[in-house]
Amino acid sequence: MFFVAFAIENILNISNIFHLWIFIFINLALKYIHIKDEIKFYNNARLREKRKNEQSGLVGHLLPTHAAEMYFSDPTGRVDVSDEINDVTILYADIKGFTDYSASREPKDVVTMLSALFTKFDKVCVQYSLYKVYTIGDCYVALSFFDKSRRNKQQEVKNMVNMALAMLQIIREVRQEVKFDGLDMRIGLHTVDIFFKSKLNKI
Question: What pLDDT is stored for residue 119 in this prediction?
Fold first, then answer.
């Protein structure tokens, strides 16, 4: 009789231990799923914030400072930018010998050269606080200021001249890298009053 009671008690203890382990396992699994969901939510939030910052940074580089501020502050999603700015120095440059170079090289080599060249030009633009308007083909256009509220017109002209001189030095370096002596720069500078009007639509 004692043996039977002992056996039954052991069976109950083993059953309790088994159920306890099942309970612990289920709780750990639920906790793991909960933590995994929290990590996923946190990573998604960080990714959204990163993309938002990247978009802000991209727009900040694509637009002059005052235009970018109007873009971000307008809640409607449609921003009309019209402005008149006095004594703006404009730089217009293109690559002399680019047609001959393109005719003698593979397309990927031409794209690689232009990318390297314009990347160096962009760094000089940032260095001298200039605003790159656009690049089309081998043409590069820049304005003498980036922030309308902080202008020094005499310094802007100096910066544009320094930009032009830097571009000439850069094309010499690239000319040696690609081993094509016909490459050079044609650069024009002009100071003028400008008026522009544009419509920006938020994505």
Answer: 92
Summarised one tens digit per residue, pLDDT across range 150-202 is: 788 889 999 999 999 999 999 999 988 888 888 999 999 998 876 655 555 55
The string of DSSP letters for 179-199 reads T-TT-EEEEEEEEEEEEEEEE
Q: How many CB atoms lie within 10 A of CB 144?
A: 27
Distance of CA 135 to the CA centre of its chain: 16
Classify each residue of 72-97 as buried b or exposed e, where b means 16 or more C-beta atoms within 10 Å of its C-beta: eeeeeeebebeeebeebbbbebbbbb
Q: How many whole angstroms separate alpha carbon 194 and alpha carbon 143? A: 11
CB neighbours of 190 closer than 8 A, spacing ≥ 6? 89, 90, 92
CATH of 78-201, one of 3.90.180.10, 3.40.50.300, 3.40.50.150, 3.30.70.1230: 3.30.70.1230
What is the per-residue pLDDT for 79?
61
